[in-house]
Design goal:
This protein has 790 residues and is an alpha/beta fold. 29% of the residues lie in helices and 24% in strands.
Amino acid sequence: MIVYHASKKGFINDVFNGTIADDIDNAFIVHLGRHTSPNEKLSWKNSMMHMYKVINTPDIPDSSSIAIEYQIPLTSKRIDFIISGMDENQRANIVIIELKQWEQAKLSQKSGVIQTRFQHGERETTHPSYQAWSYAYMLQNYNETICEQNICLSPCAFLHNYPADNIISNSCYAEYIDKAPLFLKSDAGKLQDFIKARIKHGSKEDIVWLIDKGKLRPSKQLADTLNSMLRGNQEFVLLDDQKVVYETALNMARKAVNGQKQVLIVEGGPGTGKSVIAINLLVELTKEGIIAQYVSKNAAPRDVYTAKLSGNFKKGYINNLFVSSGSFINTPKNAFGALIVDEAHRLNMKSGLYSNLGENQIIEIIQAARFSVFFIDDRQRVHIKDIGSKVAIQKYAASCQAVVHTTKLNSQFRCNGSDGYLSWLDNTLQIRETANIQLSSEDYDFKIFSDPNELFETIKKKNKINNKARIVAGYCWDWNSKKDPNANDIILPEYNFRKRWNLNSDKNLWIIKNDSVEEIGCIHTCQGLELDYIGVIIGPDMRYENNQIITDVNQRSSNDQSVKGFKSLITQNKEKALQNADEIIKNTYRTLMTRGMKGCYVFCCDKNLAEYFSAKIEPQKEIKKVLRIEPEVNDEVKYIDFLPLYSIKAACGYFGEGEAIDEAGWIKVEGIGKLNHNMFIIQAIGHSMEPMIHDGDYCVFRANPAGSRQGKIVLAEHHNFYDVDYAGSYSIKVYTSKKSFNEYGSWAHEEIILEPKNPLYSPIIIEEEKADEFRIVGEFIGIVKKGDYT
């Protein structure tokens, strides 16, 4: 998504006029529905002034295209500055520039990581060259247009306040500086040369716009790339905080080999890359000779990973990599170099089928390994026995005399990369208050369905694409089909809706089985995994009344183990037990509704809840086809592919009196034949020419037309006459005239009539004696063919 977009000439004008920060902020409001912080506006103002100085040279064409704060598809990451155009070989080029206002930094022992001061103190972050390179890598891997059109990406970093030293450009960062050159305070000229070498000409097509509207590659899913990753191939490039967490974990694991026990707690919401980092750690630590295992309480991810790897690796090898959280009851201390615990919020006190083995899974894991990393999301606690909170892990780690480090993941790669959707969901489910009260269709593909059958059919259509769409539901219906395969489980008689839970024979592989789209899954078969599209049936355990989300644990099925024991808890402490159940139910639906990378479709058993959700969604904006107005285009395409846009007053002045004027922009014109220098475009105003010409249509005219004008649509200028559409002395009307002949055969106008097409409007009549106060400026050729621009 492009936030700010202009030609180089337009950008130069915006910076020169001092409006650039406001222009970007206004673009944020239009595209993202919010303002940005004062600090971010100040950073734009400062950084864009430096970019202004760099690109303000005639050697970089005015028609090259600028994009600021470009959001990489399917992520929450934005590229600071892009300039695009053509190189000397007429190859499309995009220069990606990561802008920093840093003045100093400190070295880090971690690859691609550096430490610098931010508003709230010093912290580690990715090196600017790594960041620029990783953004370019992501863009290239997500967008097919870049490959299809052979577009070259050139990333770099510009630290315009940073003096040269041996820290930011240290040899330990050489790998990434080679991939994305680094330009410092005194390197503005070098950056200019870097851009000039790649952007020598403007492009006939707007390259940034082509990419933004281009075709996206299917998004990678972790389960599909495991085989390649375990063979040492790089399938995911870690961005920003993901890279810092990964390198931090590696560093702590290496320290723990011969030192004190280390524990890392990583907090992260749905789609922040917890599992991707976990698998990358498993691969790298194993490669380094550190005995490591991937640990999870939920069996579904382990079973799916095992199924995906089956046939490529020995069964014993696979089973030794992916293990249950209850596997360490009798494990000797420090038997493992590293244990990587995914979905750690699901850890239990005891283990075994009957929860009667061991003492505490968290302690057992910490004691069994020199280094353990726990990936958690406290808001994905969905079982009454789940104990894996941040506070609990810190407490138990301290009791084991471990060095404890905590960190967070914020980068969003699921739910269309929309942080806004997750915040909206938390606010709507009344889990926590956020500023995201309304959900825009630009944020995420979210829909409420009034009929579960329609929801089911929609998900089945999505599933035909690549078998990555499923229906899930709250556990509010008994699993009758477990004993009787012919029985139905989820029954909604008023809709004639009857479906089964996932087949017992499939167990935890429901999410990848080819025919399982006909079945309905639950939290236990999808937590820790992802799909492209998820359909969610919210059962009667959650409803809306008196402006409150109400949860009702009694509506849960008796088969559901996640709330087993609740009745005994309620006798001990009713208030705490109800609060606990409320949290579990809301967390369950939050987790289900964040499994879809591209979309989430919902049916609510409670109609009030459906209406409540619907009221929280912004109405779908009517998509109008509009034209792109380019501030400037290359000379070689003017009057060949593009015509100038003028105001009606400017056109009349230019073609009548020959006044020098600047065009308001250029519009690509197709379907009206060969263009020439006498042609121009006017935007029609009003309704007098409907239905042929509508208000706002862009109309092509030919100046100074020859021959008869009778019955033709013309652009006219007239004095002492008034056109209501144009509030003045200009008109677009049908020309007719009455003529009289004298005895010598000569003729003269008795009157000229400018006739509207709309019968609700009156014609303008110009009599003979006032004909010298009237002239035809242009003849109507047609309406610009509208493309699929939005």
